[in-house]
């Protein structure tokens, strides 16, 4: 098996557009984009407290403790319960081979479902709404094929031109979805607003603590033999530290959160509780504001 262009740098923009158009309708083919084994009835992912315990019987041996359980006296969101299970003392959830990926995937898809919507200009709303209801799957399939073949726009039929024009007039808003292009634009706009209110920043820096070489991470992982009071704590071999980092990504995320908060609190003098600079300040005096983003 070989890997060619894993980041899709050599794929043209029209190929991506054609693939997106094909995902808008169902088609019968022997080579589908995605195969999901299913029963006669689809299982509801929302408000289904039996879903996760049924998927992971070893994590829920009693069959209770599901998500979004309406009988629970205190309401608990899906994301909060995921974080709670990942921080349990026995760490069985965070060490499971698939629970972490499935839970985070469900959170990401819910974020996309609930925070993605279309916008059009008010003057064009009625005409675009009418055109959207008139677009057929066959037109989308034909348009996707022509875009993949790099046909000229003048060669499109009348119906294909209408469908293609909708791509220009309908905007997808996904600013609250982490990692989306809209969220990046939203972050850039916030930074520019900081420039207008506080002025240009005086300091730019990249913070990248190494969990694999940190004795603090080893303690967070559960290594009780590490003496943090020592100037040079004794650590295990480098390859074993790398295996620990891969084995417990939750501890790695906790280490990063702990590290940057300590940096801002003790070196730069930021009071997180008061949400302002401390009276004593830090290495560069008192901070008026800061803006950070994680990759």
Question: What does this protein structure show overall?
Answer:
The protein is mostly helical. The protein has 12 helices and 4 strands. It has helices at 13-22, 51-55, 78-86, 92-95, 99-115, 125-134, 137-148, 158-169, 181-198, 215-221, 238-247, 249-267; strands at residues 117-119, 171-173, 270-271, 276-277. Strand 3 and strand 4 (276-277) form a beta hairpin. Helix 3 packs antiparallel against helix 5. The chain is extended and about 75 Å long. The chain starts with 12 loop residues before the first helix and ends in an 18-residue tail after the last strand.
Quick description:
The protein is built from twelve helices and four strands. It has 295 residues and is mainly alpha-helical. The strands form two sheets. A two-stranded antiparallel ribbon has the order 1-2. A two-stranded antiparallel ribbon has the order 3-4.
